[in-house]
Amino acid sequence: MNRRGLFITGTDTGVGKTRVAAGMAAALRRLSAEGRFPAAEIRVWKPVQTGVVSAGHCDADSFRLAAEGGLAQNPRDIATLTYAEPLAPWMAARRTGETIDYAALLADGRRRLGDGDFLLVEGAGGLAVPITDTKLIAHLAAELGLPVLIVARAGLGTVNHTLLTVALARHSGIRVAGVVLNGAAAHTEADRLSVEENAEMIAAFGEVPVVGTLPWTEQADGASSPDWIDTMITRLDWTTLLGE
Ligand SMILES: Nc1ncnc2c1ncn2[C@@H]1O[C@H](COP(=O)(O)OP(=O)(O)OP(=O)(O)O)[C@@H](O)[C@H]1O
Ligand SMILES: C[C@H](N)[C@H](N)CCCCCC(=O)O
Ligand SMILES: [Mg+2]
């Protein structure tokens, strides 16, 4: 199967996975419309989301991926599972008396990958987040056969978090496409320098490209293509992302 896609994970919850996934979706959609990206459709998938009451709620990742990515997909189709408790999927499901049918979730992902479009998948939290009592988000990314893009914070502490995430990805047999540092406080020269030094350490010790540094900006929409997205897209190795 021609697996054309990218799994977007993070070093934590709240690091900007949705922001990056939506920004990529909007940019790739524009490139596709201009005939500069070899996929007719750009689609997003949120396998499981927690902390929201419904996939159509404006706070839901499924809603934000569609809105910020400028996508026509129905948010209710973007997310497969939605749980109210803001917890790891395993626990959020258990709070409702359910267990997640991992095989069905994986099959849904493989179906979505099968139509030859380009699929951006957003995980839940980081890679070591439980989906069931035996499966983590890392298992899902590995068994979908997709490379991961790691969204990490830009400041102090991110080197450890990012290198741990890279190590788990590789231990799980997942290719790491790159790292994006999010929330670079561009207020002072010292901040900018420390972000560059964090990127240098992550690249050196993780043997992974830091493909983007997101400034902390308020606006997020599918209309504009911020510079960081264009830089990131040019730095990614598309031969691996478009499937051999
Ligand atoms: N570069 C940025 N500039 C301004 N706000 C940002 C930026 N990145 C993320 N945010 C905001 O920070 C919050 C967390 O970002 P986001 O929801 O993308 O994280 P996440 O990793 O997807 O979280 P979750 O684990 O819940 O899915 C959101 O309110 C988002 O709008
Ligand atoms: C609720 C949050 N926004 C995410 N949907 C789920 C994050 C799970 C994190 C689990 C953990 O690492 O402790
Ligand atoms: Mg998110």
Q: Under the CATH scheme, which class?
A: Alpha Beta
Q: Could you say which structural class the secondary elements and strand pairing correspond to?
A: alpha/beta
Arithmetic mean of pLDDT: 92
Please report the distance between the alpha carbons of the first and last residues.
9 Å
Q: What is the CATH T-level topology?
A: Rossmann fold
Order of SSEs: EHEHHEHHEHEHEHEHH
| Unreliable parts | none
> Please, what is the CATH homologous superfamily?
P-loop containing nucleotide triphosphate hydrolases
Number of self-contained structural domains: 1
Plain-language structure description:
- With 244 residues, the chain is α/β, with parallel strands linked by helices.
- It has one domain (5-234): Rossmann fold, CATH 3.40.50.
- The protein has ten helices and seven strands.
- The mean pLDDT is 92.
- 7,8-diamino-nonanoic acid (DNN) binds at residues 13, 49-51, 86, 88, 124-126, 129.
- Adenosine-5'-triphosphate is lined by residues 10, 13-19, 61, 125, 182-183, 214, 216-218, 220.
- This is ATP-dependent dethiobiotin synthetase BioD.
- Homodimer.
